[in-house]
Amino acid sequence: xxxxxxxxxxxxxxxxxxxxxxxxxxxxxxxxxxxxxxxxxxxxxxxxxxxxxxxxxxxxxxxxxxxxxxxxxxxxxxxxxxxxxxxxxxxxxxxxxxxxxxxxxxxxxxxxxxxxxxxxxxxxxxxxxxxxxxxxxxxxxxxxxxxxxxxxxxxxxxxxxxxxxxxxxxxxxxxxxxxxxxxxxxxxxxxxxxxxxxxxxxxxxxxxxxxxxxxxxxxxxxxxxxxxxxxx
Length: 232
Ligand SMILES: CC(=O)N[C@H](C=O)[C@@H](O)[C@H](O)[C@H](O)COP(=O)(O)O
Known about the structure:
binds N-acetylmannosamine-6-phosphate; TIM Barrel
């Protein structure tokens, strides 16, 4: 079952439909409409934040959903599905796969990533785990721990990872083909060309978020280009 689900991501464009509370499109109705639009456009899957959005998307859209739950804990730097509590809520909401932070940063209560994995596996053996990593070493460790999928989500978002404007294609290339664990390219994929380069680097699938589902950021790019032109 896990296998056939993961297979659906192969060569797919996974659309991340996320809006935080301070963003103009915040709300499960809007995010589920985004997911339906992505499905109509041929997306392979949806990536969504919070159990509420996941549940709402699952009602209206037939694609597999990679669920995550962004939450801040006072004693931790990580925020993507930090503990078993968020995993349980995502599973109850119907998430088909669950994404979680697999970086080396301090976790709530000092928990080890491998301990959380164990807990998830024993409670939800049929839900594939997507490990969100920021570096090669984190990707290798996640593969050694036999996660189901690795995604380059966190590259550029930990203080010690490579900071760049576009996608971290080098990281995709280094991780892809290291093992039989599929590697998703994720983060700052802005153009079709970016996406193709990720596939050429060996990505199993790509996750595109902001470039499709955050209109305020899309607008900002157009406006910036005008400013640049006017000021030159
Ligand atoms: C770093 C972090 O918290 N990333 C989040 C992970 O779920 C989302 O905010 C991103 O939108 C998603 O990864 C897709 O990336 P992009 O929006 O750049 O296409």
